[in-house]
Design a protein that fits this description.
This protein has 163 residues and is of the alpha/beta class. The longest helix has 18 residues. It starts with a helix and ends in a 7-residue tail after the last helix.
């Protein structure tokens, strides 16, 4: 999780979307938050965008679309693949702010707020060992989707794990 956040932050600085001082402050705040083990708040992107207000999440998504050719997905009304939900490691999803939401014809479809973190892309490429179609999504959408998965697994005793 820390590596994903560090590499995302470094890319944001490199792209001049934030200043190094803002990243340092956000990293300090992230350390405080992770000590409380609140997965939904353990995101340097969220701290920069919503707590410090030095970055707009929409600017990051715009960059993904324009410079990386990544599409966008709205997970609010998307149920996702039941097959994937059975084996999904929710802890890894929270740590990488990424959710595999579908699988079709050998391709995995992943929604992420952390595409700009090479550690996140590498993790999921190794984890899935198959072609991936990446989509950008907001932290709010991903957080809501993961919380819904966790709630559903609690009520149905589904094997969705939260490591």
């Amino acid at each position: 999780m820390m590596r994903a956040n560090r590499l995302l932050g470094a890319n944001l600085v490199e792209l001049n979307l934030i200043k190094i001082q803002d990243l340092e402050e956000a990293n300090d705040r992230l350390l405080e938050i992770t000590a409380n083990e609140n997965a939904r708040q353990s995101t340097v992107l969220g701290i920069l965008a919503y707590e410090m207000k030095v970055l707009k999440e929409e600017d990051v998504l715009h960059h993904l679309v324009e410079d990386h050719g990544v599409g966008l997905v709205d997970l609010r009304c998307y149920e996702g693949s039941e097959e994937l939900k059975k084996t999904l490691d929710v802890g890894a999803c929270w740590a990488t702010w990424t959710v595999p939401f579908d699988h079709d014809e050998g391709f995995y479809f992943l929604a992420t707020a952390y595409y700009m973190s090479p550690a996140v892309r590498t993790f999921w490429e190794k984890q899935l060992d198959a072609p991936i179609l990446w989509y950008g999504a907001t932290l709010e959408m991903l957080g809501d989707y993961l919380e819904k998965l966790e709630a559903k697994s609690t009520t149905t005793n589904s094997p969705v794990s939260s490591t």
